Amino acid sequence: MSDDFSFTMAGDDKQQRRAFRTDVPGLEVYIPARDARYKVGDLSALGLAFIDQTRSFKEGEALELDMFLNKKLFLSGLKLRVMRVLDKGIIGCNFDGIDPRKEARLDKLVLEVQKRLIALRRAAKKKA
Fold first, then answer.
1. Distances 45 to 20, 78, 114 between C-alpha atoms, Å
2. pLDDT of residue 19
3. Is the pLDDT of residue 95 over 60?
4. CA-CA distance, 80 to 92, in Å (whole number)?
5. What is the average pLDDT value for the chain, to the nearest integer?
6. Taking the CA of residue 113 as centre, how many other CA atoms within 13 Å lie in the half-sphere pointing to its CB?
7. Does residue 57 form part of some domain?
8. From the CB of residue 70, how many other CB atoms can be counted at a distance below 10 Å?
9. What HEC string does 16-59 produce?
10. Assigned domain for 69 exists
């Protein structure tokens, strides 16, 4: 039996996201090379987007940053690559060579957010 598994759903196309993305309240990144903090707009297991009003980042740029959750250090020394720089100051990045322990910690955070969103939706349906 093969361990490979794949499927498609109606509406799948190459433009869709490769991973679930979510907003995590209180999530920020600090980039030591710029001595600056940025609010994270969304997070996935593959990368993140943050807000930079100066629009000083360039596509392809390599970054190393620390991630803070509610002002507490969550992960340090994350390596990312800038994939997109959008007009509204949104900087889209992919993780670049993340070690398994850091990846597991990020996966757990994303999963916890997904669980809470599901619980909130269920509670809202019950009230409606």
1. 8, 13, 12
2. 56
3. yes
4. 10
5. 83
6. 18
7. yes
8. 10
9. CCCCCCECCCCEEEEEHHHCEEEEEEEECCCEEEEECCCCCCCC
10. yes
pLDDT in tens, 55-75: 899 999 999 999 999 999 999
**CATH assignment of the domain containing 111:** 2.40.10.220
Question: Which of helix, strand or coil describes residue 100?
Answer: helix
Distance CA 76, CA 79 (A): 9
End-to-end Cα spacing for the chain: 46
Number of structural domains (the chain) is 1
Range of the domain at 109: 27-127
For residues 84 and 58, give the distance between their C-alpha atoms in angstroms, rounded to a whole number: 8
38, part of any domain: yes
pLDDT range class, residue 34, cuts 50, 70, 90: very high
- Determine, yes or no, domain membership for 119: yes
